[in-house]
């Protein structure tokens, strides 16, 4: 390795200072801003702002659409609940009407003898209760 150099501290310090000076000179000697470059930057900035505005508008439209869908779903759920309640009430009314009709039919089937037998049973029960006193 004949080509390898082992620089000392002072040589490294000198190289760093030289690099720093060159970078500072490059910064100081930069050319004034080119109008074409500024126009291009302005066009890119306007394009970014337009894209951001379109994105915000799309997000607002999506939010509005989601809210509309939610309202529609709630309306449908409310209608379904009302229909269920109405069906339940109709079923309860039908069951009550059936029970009443059944009682009327049973009473119509009683004969006069059945009524007399029921009356006699009530009478005998009342007498038995009075006899225990």
Task: Write up this protein.
- The protein has helices spanning 9-28, 35-109, 112-132.
- It is mainly α and 133 residues long.
- The protein is rod-shaped.
Q: What is the number of independent domains?
A: 1
What percentage of the residues does DSSP assign to strands (E)? under 5%
Rg: 50 Å
Determine the structural class based on helices, strands and strand pairing.
mainly alpha
Q: Write down how many β-strands occur, each being a DSSP E stretch of 2 or more residues.
A: 0
Taking pLDDT < 50 over at least 5 consecutive residues as the criterion, the unreliable ranges are none
Alpha-carbon distance between the termini? 134 Å
> Describe the biggest sheet?
none
Helix segment count? 3
Helix-strand topology string: HHH
Mean pLDDT across all residues, rounded?
87
Assign a percent range to the helix content.
Answer: over 70%
Give the overall form. Answer: rod-shaped
């Amino acid at each position: 390795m004949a080509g390898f150099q082992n620089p000392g501290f002072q040589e490294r310090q000198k190289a760093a200072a030289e690099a720093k000076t060159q970078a500072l000179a490059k910064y100081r000697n930069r050319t004034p801003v080119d109008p074409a470059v500024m126009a291009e930057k302005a066009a890119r900035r306007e394009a970014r702002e337009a894209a951001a505005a379109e994105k915000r508008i799309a997000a607002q439209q999506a939010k509005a659409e989601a809210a509309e869908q939610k309202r529609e779903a709630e309306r449908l759920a409310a209608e379904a609940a009302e229909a269920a309640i109405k069906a339940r009430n109709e079923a309860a009314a039908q069951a009550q009407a059936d029970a009443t009709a059944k009682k009327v039919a049973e009473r119509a089937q009683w004969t006069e003898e059945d009524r007399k037998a029921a009356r006699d049973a009530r009478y005998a029960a009342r007498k038995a209760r009075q006899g225990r006193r």
